Amino acid sequence: MSVEKTLCKLKNNNLQVIDKKISEAIDGAAIGEDGVLLPDNKESITKLISNMRKHLIKDISVSVEAEETTLFLIQSSCHSFIKCLKISMKELKDQLEEEFSNSDNITETLNKLPIKPQDELFKRVFGCGRQCPFCKAPCEAGGTEHKQHHAAIHRPQGLGSYRYESSERLVNSLCTTDVHSDRKFKNTDTKGEWHPYKDYNKYYPDWIIPPDPTTEASDYWKYVLVQYNDRFAKIYEVKPAEVPKAWRRLTKEQALKGLRDAFNMK
Question: What is residue 148's three-state secondary structure?
Fold first, then answer.
């Protein structure tokens, strides 16, 4: 944002919107209910200010007290006041544009905001905190207001601590592949009974796990399992997964490409 002056552009874009709204409010407020320009006297200023307050009610909160204080200070006639108001608006707009163009302290701006963009971005990335019941991939639906969970990339189930009962090795298959097959699973949710992966919705109706026989989008996590197989096995106190030879040939570049392709990143 510093290099491309993104924040400066954003501030100026917002400034143009605000300036346009106020300018339109001034022009609209200067016209009476009969469609004719307000008379050029001091009394008309009361109507002008009241009309402006109504025009901007959705954008600016102006109290009645502030309106009365402003009227008390104004000593000119209506048309002169409108002219001076427009000149002041232009001067303020020019002053702010110059201030924005010379200011590049992003941290200072962020600290002044009532809602912190970095916190909102974290919430979007973090999601709802739920994880895939098989591979523990986090839900990426964003925020908490969604009925079904999903993840763009699922992982070898061994990364989620699943192991084969007979060999005590980490599971090397992907849940997206298993829900496409006739394989079965069992865990505490099924009370130790075998259940078809393709009917996972019986136990996890709030999850969407798309069947995928190719699993190309998961090259990144295959690479992770190959590189840290022994470490995961030690953490989960089981034997390392038996990874296919094709997975061992995956390079770091291929793994990162799979990640970029999955999230449509160039």
Answer: coil
CA 221 to each of CA 68, 125, 160, 189, 217: distance values in angstroms, whole numbers, following the listed order: 66, 19, 12, 25, 9
Helices 43-55 & 78-102 angle (0-180, nearest 10): 40
Question: What would the DSSP string read from start to end of 156-185?
Answer: BGGGGT-B-TTT-BBP-SBHHHHTTSS-EE
CA 6 to chain centre: 17
Tokens of 254: 């291929």
- The C-alpha R_g of the chain, in whole angstroms, comes to 31
Cβ proximity of 167 and 142 under 8 Å: no
Q: Burial, 12: exposed, middle or buried (Cβ in 10 Å; 0-12, 13-18, 19+)?
A: middle
Q: What is the pLDDT of residue 217?
A: 55
Residue for token digits 């501030």?
11
Distance in angstroms between the alpha carbons of the first and the last residue of the chain: 19
Q: Mean pLDDT by 10-residue block, N- to C-terminus, for the chain (266 residues)? A: 80 93 93 87 87 88 78 83 93 92 77 84 77 91 80 90 92 91 93 95 94 72 94 95 92 88 71
pLDDT value for 169: 95
